Amino acid sequence: MPQFDPASFPSQIFWLVITFVALYAVISKFAIPRIGEILEQRARLIQDDLDRAGALKADTDAAIAAYEKAMADARNQARDVLFTATNELKKVADEKTATVNAEVNKQIADGEARIAKAKNEALGSIKSIAADTAREAVSKLAGLTLDAGKIDSAVASALNDAR
Amino acid sequence: MAAESHGPMHQFEIQRLIPLDVAGYDISFTNSAAFMSLAVICTFLLFWVATRHRTMVPSRWQSVAELTYEFVGGMVKDNVGTQGMAYFPFIFTLFMFILLGNFLGLLPYAFTFTSHIVVNATLAVFIFLAVTVIGFARHGLHYFSLFLPPGTPLPVAFILVPIEIMSYFIRPVSLSLRLFANMLAGHVLLKVLAGFIISLGIVFGIVPFAAVFAVTFLELMVAAIQAYVFALLTCIYLNDAINLH
After folding, report:
1. A13: closest chain B residue by CA
2. Cβ contact, residue pair A3, B40, below 8 Å
């Protein structure tokens, strides 16, 4: 077996050492720095991108929060405005209703007073007319002259019965 | 070297390409040295092509280089920890050297320098000595506690300590023999199966041909796995020396 021929050992060991040291130089001085640099650069780029994405996300979140706050404020404000406007309108309406009611009530009261007055006046004239008619009728039919008090009380009782 | 018919062991023969003799030692540039040099050149070319354009979205070769880097880097970090990253260049070199040696050896007419025990043994002994030096440098005499796992009952220790010492000193042997045996067996198997193709002729030769085809894929896998195992075990030994339990 050629593997166990010691004559070849010095040459193999010698060239092993030479080539291994050469390869070590290639790997440590050439391959590792260059690949390490590429990997580092990529990792940095990715990290930068991630950082930027994070910052943009924070911005977006802040914008969304601001939008939502503005929206909520506007909603509250709208509700307040609506509330005060409703209240004001209601107040105005109530006031108007109250004045109109008062006027109407006054007019109704005036009217009723007028009606009552007219009624009383009418009733008063009916009494005197009735009394005169009664006295005339009595004097013409019976030839009697009754005193005014008797006729008046009779007319009043008759009117009360008719009413 | 392929003209005449050879036995399955012929592929492991060392051939002097440039005879060299220094101080009585034969340090000729051989086919073994040629493939070691080729491994260095291929590794350099791989990383040169891979990192030539340095794009954020990697090209194919850049992906290969990055994946290898991260694979070995992850192995060192996972098994030795952050302190072990100082030895990352060494582990990376070791991995690439053995990986390229195994892969290049699978090419037709190629020589597999990792199928030579002396190459593997030199690497393994160097790793063994380096790990031992690192262990004593970091922990002093306390490094001996490696042979006595904490919490061992005293009677068990009498058996355990010799076993642990033995397993410590067997490390370079198992490390180099594993790679050597895998490479030797794989290449002999391929050669023997390939010989059957010729002797069985074009009709029945299809059977060993299919076997060679399948075994080639198996050997590709073994080549990668053995490089990984060699580097991984080195990491585990380093972890013992650096972190000690």
Report:
1. B119
2. no
The pTM score is 0.75
Annotate chain A with DSSP letters as a single string.
-GGG-GGGHHHHHHHHHHHHHHHHHIIIIIIHHHHHHHHHHHHHHHHHHHHHHHHHHHHHHHHHHHHHHHHHHHHHHHHHHHHHHHHHHHHHHHHHHHHHHHHHHHHHHHHHHHHHHHHHHHHHHHHHHHHHHHHHHHHHHH-----HHHHHHHHHHHHHHH-
B9 to A1: CB separation less than 8 angstroms, yes or no:
yes
A24·B115 Cβ contact <8 A: no
Residue in this structure with the two tokens 């050297």, named with its chain if needed: B97
Q: Which of A5, A13, A16, A17 has the most B C-beta neighbours within 10 Å, making it the best mutation to test the interface with B?
A: A16
Nearest CA in chain A to B57: A42
Q: Which of B93, B112, B117, B127 to mutate to test the interface with A (most CBs of A within 10 A)?
A: B93
pLDDT tens per residue across all 245 residues of chain B: 444 456 788 888 888 888 888 888 888 999 999 999 999 999 999 999 998 888 888 889 999 999 999 999 999 999 999 998 999 999 999 999 999 999 999 998 899 999 999 999 999 999 999 999 999 999 998 889 888 888 888 888 889 899 999 999 999 999 999 999 999 999 999 999 988 888 888 888 899 999 999 999 999 999 999 999 999 999 999 999 998 87
State whether B119 and A4 contact (CB < 8 Å): no
